[in-house]
Amino acid sequence: MTIGNPLRYLDTPLRRVNAVVVVVALVFAVVYPSLVPPPMIGVGFVALLYALRNFTWNIAGGYVGQLSLSHIVAFGTGAFSVAVLTWRHEVNAWVALVVGVLISAVIGFLISLLMSRFGVNAFFLALGTLALSLAAAGVAASWTFLGDTNGISYSGTEEGFAHLQWYVDPSGFYYTTLGFLVVITAGTAALMRFTHFGRSLPFIREDPVIAASMGIRVVRNQALAMALSMGLTSIAGTLIAQYVQIVSYESVLTVEIGVAMMVGSIIGGAGTLAGPIVAGIGIAVLEEFLRSFSVSSANVSSYTQIAYAVVVILLLRFGTGGIMPLWEAGVRAVFGSGRKEKVPEAPEQPVGELVDGRVG
Amino acid sequence: MSTVLQLASTGLLQGLIYSLIGIGLYLVFTVMRVVNFAHGYFVLIGMYGVLTLKPQGFPAFIGAIVLAALGGALVGYLVQRFLLESGLAKGGHSQLVITLSLGIAIQYLFQVLHPEPFETIPNPYPFEAFTSSGVTISAPRMAAGVLSLVLVLLVSFLVYRTRIGSIIRGCSESLNGAIHVGINVRRVYRLTFALGCGLAAIAGGLLLPIQPVSPALGLELTIKAFIVVVIGGAGSLWGTVAAGVLLGLAEALGSLYAPGTFATALVYGLFFLVILVRPQGLVVRAAARIKPRTSLTKVGVG
Amino acid sequence: MLSVSNVAKSFGGLHVLHDVNFTADSASITALIGPNGAGKSTLVNIIGGVLKPDAGRVHLDGEDVTGVPSATAFAKGITRTFQISGNVGSLNVFESVAVAAYRQARGYRQANALARAELERFELWEYRDQQLGSIPTALTRLVDFARAMVSRPKVLLLDEVMAGLTPHEVDLVIRQVGTCREQGVAIVMIEHVMQAVEALADHVVVLNQGQVIASGSLGDVSRNAEVVEAYLGTPPSERDEVRVPADTPAKGQQ
């Protein structure tokens, strides 16, 4: 086989429209920092961080259906690892980032394994992981190693990509987060599309019994997905810690963060690639929009939390699967599905949530 | 010794309030098998309700609690009627996310309305603290414990001795059976949900003079309610009551040995273990039993 | 060759299976019939690794596979279809077949190629982009069968795969089951559609109240007094489903 013309995978209007949107969005994301003043670059960073956070939750929560709140622990682990290792002991921030990822992945793997071994259902998984996150917050609040109630503040002088720190211009944070988001999204897309592991995840979500009878190792794959998901969530924690330069149990181990990840993914469309990203950026834009009405910053977060809650309740109440399914239906309604008139023997690809080229 | 006794009696009385909160959730979660992650926020509604009414004197306080309870019950009724009912057939997932989000919405609504944390009201009761053999108990704490116990007894009478109670239990045991004998199941669900939420709101009113209220309290109380209900088990209401008292005692006596936040961490850690070792399947099985899923949208969360 | 010996299973005091013995030879089709509640599905669940038997063994080509997890059973070559696929409605048709193809396939491209070939064989290729929930029930059964076949199994357990199919679809499946037999697969089918049993079964095992009451050719067992009694003893509504012989098209079930 040879490498085919990538354009032939853009065979439906939906894929073509999505391709255009993705290209435009990427170009915009790249040029955005040069269009706006530095404070708005910070807003852009926050938007991308929300997107990253939602996206990584979605790997376990959306694709596998593990409604986990233990991602709070992962987020906190990322933040605390850079605070403890880099700020206190001057370990390179990238090393701290990797350490956070590994610890979170191990925690995720063990939690998932424990939950499956004991046959805990989705609801008790949510309740149990919530209890675990609250326990973690309690430990962090009373342990001086993790800064107890005072938190840990940044100390350091070095700047630049090698140190994952920029003091004045947030565009370094912005581009680093964008890079992570693009790489993780592309990686997840490839994983979900090309590997047995990735392709098995929706089956595990829909029916573990049928999945097992198709040769899918349900328990192992669930645990691996959880490890991957929580490990990557830790990156978001590290990035935000470096950005705000203070970490305490109140700032990174709160239930709101976990709920925001869960609800953000669901609003965007759980189990879709673009949904969590769209929802994350959308909520950041909403926050900024509220700020522009000179709402006090405490109330901004209150209103966005309420907005989150109301939107997700309405979505679930009326049975739609979030923004992405609505978008797809909308595009199909406008441009047609482009499938009917297809000649059956033309070589084609079966699925496509998002445009991604294939070596065929 | 007197410290232990002091803590034990405080813990016991606090535990009775947890029991009251717990049986509200017991009716909703264990009996009706509806997941309500907003339960603690209904306690919050009771607390802020009474706070807003600013009752002067004992009769006004009781009146305020009744009003707050009716308010909580009404909100509960509406939540079940408009948000959860359609999700009933879809299983626990959507209920979980809807009620969790609802809780967050309530929390931040109060955050906007009452930005001051730790608000409270003065002792509304016409008597002062009790002292006996070195143990001092404040009037609100004593009254809250006793009133909770009375309400727990009333609810158990309602559930086990009245026709309404037998209908509720009937729906819980066999939904199809209840439908066949002509019970309006939806109405029973709505009313039971309202009852559970109303009880939570009453507990909130009783709690207010003892425990200053902040919006973040809702989540803590939700978790405690689930701890009580899960540990109490599905057997009978009395398990829940016992678990409430146990939680109150454990909290109070635990504070002797461990600093505050660490003790709470320990409680949550233990609860995590309890969730692991208990036989599961409540919610999911209930959802499958109510109606075989014909709708194939899995509400996005799988 | 699949052999089931002395298998027993009870659920909380209710004896669902009691000392069940039968073998299913390679390149032959064994039909498992019996009234509702006879324990057929439980038996299939035990063979497929979903349930563990209380007693007895299951052997595949001499290897003991009793109580192995489903995924291992699949890896060893025991594949099955499911009676109900309603709650997996959001899954994609192509993916359903492609993921099962990984038993044979080395990697993505081969899995897709195998899945494509299988879908074309079942005249399902045009539905590849659809969700299981958005195609007719009859087609989900075909997808289910294609999913089982694509893994090139040693043992194929067909759990009422014909139920609800039109005569044309029944013919299609009958042809496919026949092809599968020629490839040397030991096929065990739970079937109420007698058109299929007549056309295909080399060997019939009749299960009643958890016990094998007769086995042999279809002709043999339908003359067996105990079998006749087992069926006549059941309410007419259920008896209808096992009309012997039957030339009517399949009755819709679920």
Automatic annotation (TrEMBL), chain A:
GO molecular function: branched-chain amino acid transmembrane transporter activity
Database matches in PANTHER family: HIGH-AFFINITY BRANCHED-CHAIN AMINO ACID TRANSPORT SYSTEM PERMEASE, HIGH-AFFINITY BRANCHED-CHAIN AMINO ACID TRANSPORT SYSTEM PERMEASE PROTEIN LIVM
Pfam families linked to this entry: BPD_transp_2
GO CC term (a single one): plasma membrane
Domain of life: Bacteria
Keywords on record: Cell membrane, Membrane, Transmembrane, Transmembrane helix
Protein name stated in the entry: Amino acid/amide ABC transporter membrane protein 2 (HAAT family)
Membrane topology recorded in Swiss-Prot or TrEMBL: Multi-pass membrane protein
Subcellular location, principal: membrane
Protein's UniProt keywords contain Transmembrane helix: yes
Biological source species: Umezawaea tangerina
TrEMBL record, chain B:
Protein name in the entry: Amino acid/amide ABC transporter membrane protein 1 (HAAT family)
InterPro entries: ABC_transp_permease, BCAA_transport_permease
Entry annotated with the keyword Transmembrane: yes
Pfam family, one: BPD_transp_2
Species of origin: Umezawaea tangerina
Superkingdom as given in the UniProt entry: Bacteria
Biological process terms in GO annotation: amino acid transport
Major subcellular location class: membrane
Keywords, ordered alphabetically: Amino-acid transport, Cell membrane, Membrane, Transmembrane, Transmembrane helix, Transport
Automatic annotation (TrEMBL), chain C:
PANTHER family: CONSERVED COMPONENT OF ABC TRANSPORTER FOR NATURAL AMINO ACIDS-RELATED (PTHR45772)
Gene Ontology terms for molecular function: ATP binding; ATP hydrolysis activity
Keyword Transmembrane helix carried by entry: no
Residue ranges annotated for the ABC transporter domain, each copy included: 2-234
Domain of life, per lineage: Bacteria
Keywords from the UniProt entry: ATP-binding, Nucleotide-binding, Transport
Region (Disordered), start-end ranges: 235-254
UniProt-recorded name of the protein: Amino acid/amide ABC transporter ATP-binding protein 1 (HAAT family)
Cited PROSITE patterns: ABC_TRANSPORTER_2
Pfam families found in the cross-reference section: ABC_tran, BCA_ABC_TP_C
GO cellular component entries: plasma membrane
InterPro entries in the record: AAA+_ATPase, ABC_AA/LPS_Transport, ABC_transporter-like_ATP-bd, BCA_ABC_TP_C, P-loop_NTPase
